[in-house]
Write a structure and sequence with these properties.
Blueprint (H helix, E strand, L loop, with lengths): L1 H11 L4 E2 L5 E7 L4 E9 L4 E11 L5 H12 L6 E4 L5 E9 L7 H27 L4 H20 L2
Antiparallel strand pairs: 1-2, 2-3, 3-4, 4-6, 5-6
Helix pairs in contact: 2-3, 2-4, 3-4
Amino acid sequence: MNEVLKKYFDDKGWKYSNAESESIFFFGISGVNLTIHCTADLDEEKKRFLFCTEASVSVPEEKRRDIAELLTRFNYGTFLGNFEMNFENGRIQFRTSIVYDSIELTDILLGNLIMNNIISMDLSFPSIQKVLEEDQTPLDAYLFMQGQIDALKKEVESG
């Protein structure tokens, strides 16, 4: 299965490094709104795949409750994946995962999990910045993101 993941990364032209276990891959990617640190963990023994993106920001302690509220608002209704924040260090990540014991792990399936993750982090980051840098409320920052998504949908629908 590692070969499927390596091929997916190679086909995208993404440069990655492996942990000693060779089942964990690290790389960075530049999104529209931020540089994203990515970790892919393919556990062939347990037949599960985990992909995490980490925002290139550490939330100051005094903003962590507001960001936690914003991330909760993002998570509500999210179909695939979830946002998390480490309250000890302020790191924000988005994670997607799958257990694949009864299905074949293909490049299409991996691509859906990985790209959904990267896009979710990238689209959400401007709202995170609004809370961190512009002192917007979590609700206002969430509504800003919803407006951005609605605008993208209209653009796609209009061709």
